[in-house]
Design brief:
By secondary structure, the chain is an alpha+beta fold. Helix content is 27%, strand content 32%. The longest helix is centred in the N-terminal third of the chain and has 19 residues. The protein is elongated. 19% of the residues are buried.
Length: 132
């Protein structure tokens, strides 16, 4: 069945909203959550990166209308001294590369967050949008 018809919250959104606009909105909610919820987590060990990657993916997939999520955390932990209590880094958005797909009604949105050297900024943007 179409996700749009399973949406108990749809009555709160204007009927002027298209499926594509709603899918883009839902993508923005997920990307904003990632950028703000996980910033500042201390990371020292390689295992932590894999756990964090999975936690972020699960958090995204727990939200409504998310079809897929792929998270990369780009931190080189080999430089950290496990015996030094001050040798760690905190998660910054520039270490993230996240792709999500949202499906709503007949529409889909592929959105992404990643650091872009050219603009020296971690950009959240829509890579693709269309009809299923």
């Amino acid at each position: 069945m179409d996700s749009k018809y399973l949406d108990k919250a749809s009555k709160y959104f204007t009927p002027k909203l298209t499926d594509r606009e709603r899918a883009a909105f839902e993508a923005g909610v997920a990307l904003g959550m990632i950028l703000h919820q996980f910033r500042g987590i201390p990371i020292k060990y390689t295992d932590e990166i894999e756990h964090l990657r999975k936690v972020i993916e699960y958090a995204v997939m727990s939200q409504p209308f998310k079809h897929s999520a792929r998270v990369q955390v780009n931190i080189d932990t080999s430089k950290f001294n496990i015996n030094d209590p001050y040798s760690y880094v905190t998660l910054d958005p520039r270490y993230l590369d996240v792709e999500i797909t949202v499906e709503y009604g007949k529409a889909f949105v592929k959105a992404r967050i990643r650091y872009i050297d050219e603009i020296n900024y971690t950009l959240a943007y829509i890579e693709d949008i269309g009809e299923k």
